[in-house]
Predict the 3D structure of the following.
Amino acid sequence: MPPLVDPTRCDGCPQEAEPPCVLVCPGDLMVLDAERKQAYCREEADCWDCMTCVKACPRQALRTRLSYQLADVSADLMPEVTGDHITWTLVDCRGRVERFTVRTLNTEPEGHSNSPPRE
Ligand code: SF4
Ligand code: SF4
């Protein structure tokens, strides 16, 4: 299910050469409607819910729709990126709110890895 664009928040990122949501979509699906100055997903069936665009939007104008995954009615999952953390706000189908904060950057010293060595 593609991200929902909140028209009251999306301003088309006029200060950017290319809006972050357009820049980061791995499927090249987010585009800017030049007339309305708002972003949209040009091929909804091709979106695989990676949420990269949702995390990249500086105005929190994109919402992830989780109706299929979490409930039979709408639920929301909103990220807020601050420094090296991201806080996810989940509003479930009953309106209950939960927040989860996780670190987003690998701050391990260069050359150090938790990954198992390759064969
Ligand atoms: S990054 Fe956010 S505010 Fe900017 S164009 Fe995309 S959806 Fe709109
Ligand atoms: S959720 Fe992922 S695939 Fe879908 S429009 Fe956003 S960046 Fe592209």
